[in-house]
Specification:
The protein is mainly beta. Among the domains are: 9-110, Nucleic acid-binding proteins (OB fold (Dihydrolipoamide Acetyltransferase, E2P), Beta Barrel); 126-233, Nucleic acid-binding proteins (OB fold (Dihydrolipoamide Acetyltransferase, E2P), Beta Barrel), CATH 2.40.50.140. It has helices at 64-67, 126-130, 185-197, 238-243, 251-255, and strands at residues 20-32, 40-48, 54-60, 76-80, 83-86, 98-102, 107-110, 140-149, 153-156, 162-171, 177-183, 204-210, 228-229, 248-249, 264-265, 296-298, 304-306. The strands form 4 sheets. A 7-stranded mixed sheet has the order 5-6-3-2-1-4-7, with no helix packed on it. Strands 8, 9, 10, 11, 12 and 13 form a 6-stranded antiparallel sheet that branches. The longest helix has 13 residues, at 185-197. The protein is globular and about 70 Å long. The termini are far apart.
């Protein structure tokens, strides 16, 4: 096992089975045979190297017993002696002909020094998606404000099973709208959140590895399809207040500000500094900072008592 001789995903050669890769598992799920109930195909994953390249990976069912106990979502690994196999599925996650296959000869070792992206998100704008600049044959990442939503509905899959979904209309910072469906457990999670927070909630949805169908991307008629707005605030909608009143900024923009203003920043909390005090004691009346002191007073028996 040579941890110092790592090959980046873009440089993999399908003819070689001797390469070592260093990757983070972004997503991991059990892949089942849709035509044979209860039959497992294997473990399917989306992995990413330190340069941010993402690829599909799979552990076929006959090798699961060896590898499944070692693999976890969001963990990083050195993978030795895997190989590339041709993707035969009609749907690919990314624009790549091969997936990484972990077989009996493959070895896995957990890695604690991964220097790449934390989540591997590659946001596409609504404008680029609608203009056809993003190839919707593959997985897409996007973010938007949930402006409208509908009650969950149930439909039949091709295999005759019931599947639940909720329709959402998303709005980006440019005011461009995009229709989105959340299915099954994602539907339940979103609908439950909206119901528990009622009309006073702002919801921003970040989708990673979403897929597109052309029929989903029809412009919906909000007034006639039973969709509901999330929140309202006088004559200005919550969407307008959130997306247009305040500009989106990155951390570099903030360092260049020369006057007080309100901004919205999208970022990831990497840690909390607990070494220095980030709070102070305040007076309940004037709200100013107060200092704690000890006052020595003499009690009736002549002893001194601190207060």
């Amino acid at each position: 096992m040579d941890e110092n001789n790592v090959t980046f995903l873009n440089n993999l050669d399908w003819r070689s089975k001797l390469f070592t890769i260093k990757v983070k598992v972004l997503r991991l799920w059990i892949r089942v045979n849709p035509k044979r109930e209860g039959v497992t195909v294997g473990i399917e994953m989306v992995v990413m190297d330190e340069l941010g390249t993402r690829m599909q990976a799979i552990v076929w069912s006959k090798f699961m017993k060896k590898h499944e106990i070692l693999l976890n979502e969001h963990e990083c690994y050195y993978i030795f002696k895997s190989h590339l196999s041709v993707i035969k599925s009609n749907f690919k996650h990314f624009d790549k002909e091969h997936a990484i296959s972990l077989n009996f000869d493959t070895s896995i070792k957990k890695c604690d020094n991964f220097d790449g992206s934390v989540y591997g998100i590659r946001l596409s704008s609504f404008e680029s998606i609608k203009a056809g600049e993003v190839d919707i044959k593959y997985r897409v990442d996007f973010i938007g404000y949930v402006d409208e939503w509908s009650e969950p509905e149930v439909t039949k899959t091709k295999m005759g099973k019931d599947s639940k979904y909720i329709k959402l209309q998303l709005l980006d910072e440019e005011g461009i709208k995009l229709n989105c469906n959340l299915w099954d457990e994602y539907c339940d999670e979103m609908f439950g959140y909206i119901q528990s927070h009622k009309e006073d909630v702002h919801v921003v949805l970040l989708v990673q590895f979403g897929s597109f169908n052309k029929f989903v991307e029809k412009i919906c008629k909000i007034s006639s399809n039973g969709q509901k707005s999330i929140g309202s605030s006088g004559s200005i909608s919550l969407a307008d207040d959130f997306l247009f009143k305040h500009p989106f900024s990155n951390f570099r923009d903030i360092t260049l500000l020369d006057k007080p203003c309100e901004v919205i920043v999208h970022g990831t909390t990497m840690g909390v500094d607990d070494k220095d005090d980030w709070y102070y004691l305040g007076c309940d009346e004037c709200k100013r900072k107060v200092e704690t002191t000890f006052v020595i007073e003499e009690v009736e028996d002549g002893a001194e008592e601190p207060k």
